[in-house]
Design goal:
Blueprint (H helix, E strand, L loop, with lengths): L2 E5 L2 H5 L2 H10 L3 E5 L11 E3 L2 E3 L7 H6 L5 E4 L4 H4 L17 H6 L4 H7 L3 H11 L11 H10 L10 E6 L8 H8 L1 H15 L3 E6 L4 H18 L3 E6 L9 H8 L23 E5 H5 L1 H4 L4 H7 L1 E2 L2 E2 L1 E8 L5 E6 L4 H8 L9 E6 L6 E2 L10 H6 L8 E6 L4 H15 L5 H20 L5 H4 L1 H9 L4 H18 L3 H5 L1 H10 L7
Parallel strand pairs: 1-2, 6-7, 6-9, 7-8, 12-16
Antiparallel strand pairs: 1-3, 3-4, 4-5, 10-11, 12-13, 14-15, 14-16
Length: 509
């Protein structure tokens, strides 16, 4: 019998991968549990001698083994979804067992750490700067500059050490690349953090993971124990969040690790100078740190710098989700268009209806209409279009979506998740829900508007017109964007104002 490879990724498990693996074992096969290829619409995906079958169920086992299955997709590596990618961060995806030190070493694991430790910290920093790597958590700040700031920060009695912190609080809707990396290739993240520690002079690190990722937490803890000898003297620990979206913001995250309430700190001081426990701290997200082993490989920095466009260098693991036919992870160089991602790669909507909007960058990202689908995937290009790349999540909506309701949701989400420290976010989000309800009630748009009729009548009695409410909404958005302490309040206007701009009909007339 051939060896059967099935992912133990959380998505595959949710689709029945454990039962499928047990069925193959019962049929006399040897089953290896590997990382996910990222072709999520085909999970559970079965691989035998390089050929794939999916989505497979227990009832498909006999036909697959007999060679008569209609679930065959050919060689996985040759599938257009995989063959069209440029995988660096996810080069091992689908190919290795997540907790196998042997698999990791055979595929080049630990070589970059060894190379980095043979270099001076300054030379390592120079390589990261040369690569052009920018933070993949949303802001796109150059990683090398952040590291250099921490490396140059002096130590003192009140801040006697330095830290490396990984932000794995992946809370944006439609994002799953961090989870896939932690569950499928945890040693790569650990190696990247160990290289960062050498570069900045840290000996302790923390991975802050959202509690909703139990499989990732278990994998990371097991991987850290297995890799303790390889990364010594660097020490690493997993800290689990308690479900607060705002703890994805770096200073809230640091407060949470310290055992404090997860709320935003005012800046300055920057975490690079006074971060965890008041010490200089590197805070990067999973994808940023996981890119480091490739960059520190022989010639990796220069290759990385040649990929992408303008100041957006290297590759980005883009996550296709929502109403899309072929959802999954697609890693490619910056510069690809939304049109190619949604239609050529993603296959259009799963409902077969026209695409109405795409939200890029999580629940606080702008809604982008089809007329802007030729926008290149580039930080500056998106900023000029009043949009965000964020963590690289793309959520697709068909023409049945109510964009007025989606705008209202952005304010409601912000109100629910605000830490409450700053007034624009805490109060502005609640006022935003009320204003949108009045606007939609005036035009009788949507079920939510019915509940808002009392507020609408009170506003009308006070003499406020629909046009005045629209002006008030724009003023509120500007205030939140410019005066909020963190991106939660500062980015909430992006989905609101983009929905109003491109789909005014969904706000009533």
């Amino acid at each position: 019998m051939s060896t059967v490879r099935i992912s133990d990724d959380a998505l595959a498990l949710a689709c029945g991968a454990d039962a499928l693996a047990a069925a193959f074992e019962a049929a006399g096969c040897t089953v290896e549990r590997v990382s996910s290829w990222g072709m999520h619409w085909l999970e559970p995906l079965v691989e035998i001698d390089g050929h794939g079958f999916g989505p497979a169920g227990v009832d498909d086992v006999a036909a697959i083994l007999a060679g008569t299955s209609d679930k065959a997709i050919g060689r996985i590596a040759d599938h257009p979804f995989i063959a069209g990618q440029q995988r660096l961060t996810f080069a091992r995806a689908g190919k290795t067992r997540p907790l196998s030190l042997e698999d990791y070493a055979v595929t080049g694991g630990w070589a970059s750490l060894a190379r980095a430790r043979a270099m001076t910290p300054g030379d390592v920093l120079a390589q990261v700067l040369q690569s052009g790597l920018r933070g993949r958590g949303g802001a796109g700040f150059p990683a090398g500059i952040k590291w250099q700031t921490v490396a140059n920060a002096p130590l003192g009695p009140t801040h006697p050490c330095k830290y490396v912190v990984c932000n794995a609080d992946e809370g944006d809707s439609g994002t799953f690349a961090d989870r896939m990396l932690m569950e499928g290739d945890p040693f790569q993240l650990i190696e990247g953090m160990a290289i960062a520690a050498h570069a900045v002079g840290a000996d302790q690190g923390y991975i802050y993971v959202r509690s909703e990722y139990p499989h990732a937490i278990a994998k990371l803890r097991a991987a850290i124990a297995l890799a303790a000898e390889q990364i010594a003297p660097f020490r690493l620990e997993v800290r689990v969040g308690a479900g607060a979206y705002v703890c994805g913001e770096e200073t809230s995250l640091l407060n949470s690790i310290e055992g404090k309430r997860g709320e935003v700190r005012a800046k300055p001081p920057l975490p690079a100078l006074e971060g965890l426990f008041g010490c200089p701290t590197v805070v990067n997200n999973v994808l940023t740190l996981a890119a480091i082993p490739h960059i520190l490989s022989e010639g990796g920095a220069s290759l990385y710098a040649r990929l992408g466009i303008d100041r957006s260098k290297g590759t980005m693991p883009i996550q296709l989700a929502g109403n899309i036919r072929r959802g999954g992870l697609y890693e490619t160089a910056f510069g690809i268009t939304l049109r190619a991602l949604i239609h050529d790669i993603g296959g259009g909507t799963a409902s077969a209806r026209p695409v109405k909007a795409v939200q890029v960058g999580g629940p606080l990202g702008a809604y982008i209409p089809p007329s802007q689908f030729d926008l290149p995937f580039d930080y500056e290009a998106y900023a000029r279009a009043d949009a965000l790349i964020g963590h690289g999540g793309i959520t697709v909506f068909d023409d049945s979506a109510d964009m007025g309701a989606m705008a209202r949701f952005a304010f409601a989400f912000c109100a629910a998740e605000s830490c409450g420290k700053c007034t624009p976010c805490r109060i502005g989000s609640t006022r935003g829900v009320e204003v949108i309800d009045r606007i939609r009630a005036g035009g009788k748009a949507g079920a939510d508007a019915v509940e808002a009729l009392p507020q609408m009548h009170n506003a009308r009695k006070a003499g406020r017109s629909r046009e005045e409410d629209l002006a008030l909404l724009a003023d509120l958005a500007e205030t939140m964007q410019s005066a909020s302490l963190c991106a939660l309040g500062g980015f909430t206007p992006y989905p609101v104002m983009s929905a109003l701009k491109h789909w005014p009909e969904d706000f009533g007339q």
